[in-house]
Amino acid sequence: MVDRMGSGATRVLTGERDGLREEVSNRIAILRALLIYGILVVHIPYAGHPDAGSGEASFFSWFRTLLGDVAFRSGVPCLSAISGYLLFSRGIRTSYANFARKKFTTLVIPLLVWNALVYVLVLGAQGFGVANGYFPDLRAAPPRETMNLLLSISGEPINLPLYFLRDLFACMIMAPAIGFAVRIAPIPTLLLLLAVSMNFIGQPFFLRADIVLSFAIGATLALHKVDVTALDRSWRAWGAIFVVLSCLLALALTLVDSASPTWIFYGKKLLALIGALAFWTLSSVLSRTAPGARLGEASQHSFWVFCSHYPAMMILWMIWNKYCGPDYYLVFYFGCMALAFPALAILHVILRSRLGKVIAIVDGGRSR
């Protein structure tokens, strides 16, 4: 009787754990789509309006600053934390060499392929006098800059958002050391990485040190089996804190001189971490809604959108400036907000159906 009860209790607990894992997986899928949409918004080209810091910026300048320079800057830290959490929840179930080879395929190959494609397109366009001023002058670029534009060794790549893939690969390569450190000394390790991300301590490995901090936070939550749903009930509080602080920081960025004071720099860094937490708790609500379900479905296109949105919008921006100019910029901005993600997702479906093997390489194997 006792054995049967114990067996039944085990099945119940196992079912609860499986249900929790499924819920967390659904929330991660929702956030991937939502946050990559936010990264897309961050990179919508902008020019021809009063600059932030002029003291004369319009409501639209504040709104654009709120979304592009503040609120959606939480996307990269949150995605980094998710990557760290997933890796250490599942564990490295193969040899380190096989693990590194897999991550090279899923992260570095897309980085190299997309940068090469954009580089060739821009080089050809600049040969006809097009794209000048929108991208670096590739013909005049010194070898070091060219290497960075193509490989992102120590600088930003030509497909700008893909610095994230470069730094995430660095996190993966250093994952055993990061895991060891946060397992035995989580608080000192995270405080050290916080100091690094705030530029108090220099480091040669990452283009953005806040990525490794967020990755380590995710690793800490997984290794110490922290209940990642514990703060779900307080999603309203975290959301309100994040919205209020974001509005205030956006106002400061709009009104303060463009050479932002140090406190704004630190404020943006800390608010990005708060925002990652706010987005995570928000996902507990979205996961029970129809829009959340649609975001979860759209996550299958999120990596493609992440890699393709920057060159796509820059091409549209060049065309827009040639034929429309800055007077109708609001149409361009809100058009990109509304249409860029679904348009790129549709393109992904079409190309995947016709060029499946090629797209699988470009997607790092995600489209197989």
What does the model show?
- It is a single chain.
- The protein is mainly α and 368 residues long.
- The chain has one domain (32-362).
- Helix content is 73%, strand content 0%.
- It contains 15 helices and no strands.
- Helix 1 (2-42) crosses helix 12.
- The longest helix has 41 residues, at 2-42.
- Mean pLDDT is 89; it is low at 1-16 and 49-55.
Gap between N and C termini: 49 Å
Arithmetic mean pLDDT: 89
Ranges where pLDDT stays below 50 over 5 or more residues in a row are 1-16, 49-55
The major beta sheet can be summarized as:
none
**Which term fits the overall shape?**
globular
Percent in helix: over 70%
Computed CA radius of gyration, to the nearest angstrom: 22 Å
SS elements, strand count: 0
Secondary structure: elements and pairs:
Elements: H1 2-42, H2 59-70, H3 75-90, H4 96-127, H5 143-151, H6 163-173, H7 175-184, H8 186-197, H9 209-223, H10 235-255, H11 262-286, H12 290-298, H13 302-323, H14 329-354, H15 356-362
Helix pairs in contact: 1-3, 1-11, 1-12, 1-13, 2-10, 3-6, 3-9, 3-11, 4-6, 6-9, 7-8, 7-9, 8-9, 10-11, 13-14, 14-15
In short:
With 368 residues, this protein is mainly alpha-helical. Helix 1 packs across helix 11.
Give short descriptive properties of this protein.
mainly alpha, 368 residues, 73% helix, single chain, disordered N terminus
